[in-house]
Amino acid sequence: MYTAGMRMASVQFRARRAAEPAKPEPEHEKEPEQVEEPAAHVPPAHHPGHHNYDHMKNKFMNEIGHLPLPMWAVGAIVVVVLVLVGCCTFCLFKKCFGKKKKTKKVRERKAGRRRKADNEGGGEGGDKEEGDKKEGEGEEKEQEKLGKLEFSLDYNFTDAQLIVGILQAQDLAAMDMGGTSDPYVKVYLLPDKKKKHETKVQRKNLCPVFNETFIFKIPYTELGGKILVLQVFDFDRFSKHDVIGEIKIPMNSVDLGQPMQCWRDLENSEKEEAEKLGDVCISLRYVPTAGKLTINIMEAKNLKKMDVGGLSDPFVKIVLQHNGKRIKKKKTTVKKNTLNPYFNESFSFEIPFEQIQKVQVVITVYDYDKLGSNDAIGKTFMGYGATGVGLKHWSEMLANPRRPVAQWHVLCPEEEVDAALKVPPR
Question: By CB atoms within 10 Å of each CB, which of 133, 158, 363, 389 scores lowest?
Answer without folding.
Answer: 158
